Amino acid sequence: MTAKNTICLWYDHDAEQAAHFYASVFPDSQVGAVHKAPGDYPSGKQGDVITVAFTVMGIPCIGLNGGKAFSHCEAFSFQVCTEDQAETDRLWDAIVNNGGEASVCGWCKDRWGISWQITPRALIEAFAHPDPAAAKRAFDAMLQMGKIDVAAIQAALAG
């Protein structure tokens, strides 16, 4: 069944490679149909992979091999809520160590330029802490981080 709403992600030429990477890293992710171009098009030839259907953590996506006309930016990102430091480390490291790029405050980019927010549940809960001073300490601690350090967030909450 085709989803009524699907995220379309533009790739230069390697949507299928990206889809397989996501399926190997994120739970509830898989690669579906791979469609080849029925004829030549501006950035490719007949028979080239033009679209790839895949899911990332249950979210339906289409990877479109559209060429170099457009690139990704931080205005779109996947936010992944992790349960603990081990899951945070595993996902962050998988993205960054596969040609990606580390950023700040839990953000990183994969090798295709897609932005990811690897966000531990402890950070989300810290921002909602009933003590505004504790929430601010956790927020200030986060601002100093690349990958989120759950123990440091919890220490900042404790004061």
Number of helices: 5
Contiguous runs where pLDDT drops below 50 for at least 5 residues: none
CATH architecture of the largest domain: Roll
Q: What helical percentage do the residues reach?
A: 25-40%
CATH class of the largest domain: Alpha Beta
The description of the largest β-sheet is: 4 strands, mixed
Overall, the morphology is: elongated
Number of self-contained structural domains: 2
In percent terms, what proportion of residues is strand? 25-35%
Structural class determined from secondary elements: alpha/beta
The name of the CATH topology of the largest domain is: 2,3-Dihydroxybiphenyl 1,2-Dioxygenase, domain 1
Order of helices and strands: EHEEEEHEEEHHH
Topology at a glance:
Elements: E1 7-11, H1 15-25, E2 30-36, E3 49-56, E4 59-65, E5 77-82, H2 85-96, E6 101-102, E7 107-109, E8 115-120, H3 121-127, H4 132-142, H5 150-158
Parallel strand pairs: 1-4, 5-8
Antiparallel strand pairs: 2-3, 3-4, 6-7, 7-8
